[in-house]
Amino acid sequence: MRNMTLAALAASSIVGMSATAAMAHISLQQNQATPGAYNAVLGIPHGCDGAATEAVHVEIPEGFIGVKPMPKAGWTIEIEEGDYGRSYNLHGYEVSSGTAAVTWKGGSLADDHYDEFTLHGTLAGVEAGQRLFFKTTQTCASGEEAWTQIPAPGDDPHAFEHPAAMLTILADAGTEGHSHHAASEAASGDLLISDAWARAMLPGQATGGAYMTIRNDGEEVDTLLSVTSPVAGTVEIHTMTMEDDIMVMRPLEDGLEIPAGESVMLEPGGLHLMFMQVGTPFTEGAEVPVSLEFEKAGTVGLTMPVLPARTGRGADAHQH
Ligand SMILES: [Cu+2]
Description:
single chain; Immunoglobulin-like; five-stranded antiparallel β-sheet; 2 helices; elongated; binds copper (II) ion
């Protein structure tokens, strides 16, 4: 069902673009990754207007450090070194410069063939939700094809004819030392869910709150229709507003809209998920499984860590 929905979405987004542009984009085989070791595998799906590709040049984005290209038979490699925008700690060493660009040249990749070019490195100093762009230029006997367009924040990356390959950073669930960021994440289609957590409950309490950020990188609005969890009788999506000095919570009967190109934050004092009829109160360190049903992206499952109630606004203690 979900696959059908995504296929239908993909088909509809192709309408209006030329067939070559729709299929032509250079992209990363794995376009979402957590901080740490990462292999950027760039797929080159065709040549330049029918001509064979003779060189592939990739600019390394800030935050992808210690990069080494994978050799390819029939191609020679040229590495350009440069300074990073800041310094990083890589395996215990302070580094402030490294590979800035890589060129594979001297080969020949026919227009009707597909090949992959791999860069191994480490994603460092990056945060969940951040996007890294790999500007790539193909050189053919007939000329160049530059895949270097980068969307401004909020812009739709799908609208470009020659977009740079995009990598989205996911939350690092293993990060220690800042528990408020130790959140689970999940992605489906154009949606990215990050910084999800459930609030620890008091003994005997039957309702609990949960929070997350939902980002929609797509071209169309999506709607969170319903939420379920095996550890709660029901889960509601609540708004919270101040009315005459009183905090009022209301379920969103028609679901929660996630506008195209925007992030919606569920956070203490505002929008939240409300777990009702919870059998065993959530305790710090436990994990809460949850399943989110979106109108377009389908079902997205994730597991949220239970964190202590954050300091500050205590108004949404969920004592209904
Ligand atoms: Cu509530």
